[in-house]
């Protein structure tokens, strides 16, 4: 057994950034064109691969052939070892199966080796090395070698998954220590962990529903649902801020949904984001840097919002900022869209910590 490989494997179990190197080493042993580690759930596939070039192939594979027969058969076998394509498909089946006929075979692939490892969380991890057909299938001796490595692979993968969840939960507890309610959410917005301060907001502010963590405020809940959908998408992997109006004796709140980034972290943790609650208790007009910190605003948007909170009309704010009134109004529209509000009075009330007060003219 390759002792250096095992050493690197257990290092990666506690340092997720090292998994791509593990995949490159596994690919070298398999004499493959590329290796990939996939986390499979009924609703999604997430992966990291051994190289950017092979990642393009994997991405095309799953985008064009989601739920393909190749993956389904591997998982269905529940084999406690490694299997080759030739172990689960005949040549005739490959010639007629779309993922082989239309994608793998034309590129000279379709002769890989893989194993699946079940996780207690319900996910399955697939470790796969793709070979070029001209190399021929992995021989029985190498399969036996991989089978001896498999218990180590399983322990390292499951340890990574457990540690990643504990890191996310630890972040929520750390926020508790500085007085901030926080919840760890999965990719569908379901709550995986709540710190005590966040739990205290149920049900007045938050609703711990089986399908998704919800908010009692319907407008804010719609914004949260939209934000959860963007988590994990390259274009949407930014912090999203959601305002919640004053409720009973609670001040207005700002909820920040922060994605948990990093390819290896995305593979090994069901946690996709952390939802942090910040109460707005400022009684004086906030400065632009405070406004920018509360929401995902550009500096120009933050400066305008601070002036509006101070009681400026758009025309007056434009003059103070040295821009055209039309520019100020279009900037204000973006501020309103990002905060999920509809009236200037609501923005003023929220930023000044006085609730959704009425009375500010446009």
The CATH superfamily label of the largest domain reads Transcription factor LuxR-like, autoinducer-binding domain
Helices, by number, come to 16
Main beta sheet: 5 strands, antiparallel
Q: Which structural class matches the secondary elements?
A: alpha+beta
Query: Would you identify the regions where 5 or more consecutive residues have pLDDT less than 50?
Result: 354-362
Radius of gyration: 26 Å
Number of domains: 3
Quickly name the level 1 CATH class of the largest domain: Alpha Beta
CATH topology of the largest domain: Beta-Lactamase
- Which whole number gives the mean pLDDT? 84
Q: Could you please describe the fold and organization of this structure?
A:
It contains 16 helices and twelve strands. It is of the alpha+beta class and 362 residues long. The longest helix is centred in the middle third of the chain and has 38 residues, at 140-177. The protein is elongated, with a radius of gyration of 26 Å.
């Amino acid at each position: 057994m390759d002792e250096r490989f095992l050493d690197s494997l257990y290092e990666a179990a506690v340092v997720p950034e090292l998994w791509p190197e593990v995949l490159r080493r596994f690919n070298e042993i398999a004499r493959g064109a590329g290796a990939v580690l996939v986390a499979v759930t009924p609703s999604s596939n997430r992966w990291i691969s051994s190289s950017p070039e092979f990642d393009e192939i994997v991405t095309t594979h799953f985008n064009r052939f989601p739920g393909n027969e190749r993956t389904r058969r591997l998982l269905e076998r529940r084999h406690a070892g490694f299997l080759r394509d030739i172990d689960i498909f005949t040549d005739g089946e490959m010639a007629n199966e779309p993922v082989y006929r239309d994608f793998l075979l034309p590129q000279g692939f379709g002769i890989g080796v893989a194993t699946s490892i079940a996780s207690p969380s319900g996910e399955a991890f697939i470790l796969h090395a793709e070979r070029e057909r001209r190399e021929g299938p992995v021989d029985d001796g190498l399969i036996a070698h991989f089978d001896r490595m498999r218990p180590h692979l399983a322990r390292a993968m499951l340890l990574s998954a457990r540690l990643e969840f504990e890191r996310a939960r630890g972040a929520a507890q750390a926020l508790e220590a500085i007085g901030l309610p926080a919840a760890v959410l999965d990719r569908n917005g379901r709550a995986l962990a709540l710190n005590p301060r966040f739990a205290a907001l149920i049900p007045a502010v938050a609703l711990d529903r089986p399908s998704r963590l919800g908010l009692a405020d319907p407008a804010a809940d719609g914004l949260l649902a939209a934000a959860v959908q963007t988590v994990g998408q390259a274009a949407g992997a930014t912090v999203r801020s959601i305002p919640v109006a004053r409720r009973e004796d609670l001040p207005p709140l700002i909820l920040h949904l922060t994605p948990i980034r990093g390819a290896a972290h995305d593979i090994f943790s069901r946690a996709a984001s952390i939802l942090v609650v910040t109460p707005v208790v400022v009684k004086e007009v906030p400065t632009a840097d405070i406004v920018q910190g509360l929401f995902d605003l550009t500096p120009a948007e933050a400066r305008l919002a601070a002036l509006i909170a101070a009681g400026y009309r758009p025309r007056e704010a434009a003059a103070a900022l040295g821009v055209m009134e039309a520019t100020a109004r279009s900037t204000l529209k973006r501020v309103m869209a990002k905060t999920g509000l509809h009236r200037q009075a609501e923005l003023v009330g929220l930023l000044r910590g006085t609730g959704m007060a009425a009375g500010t003219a446009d």
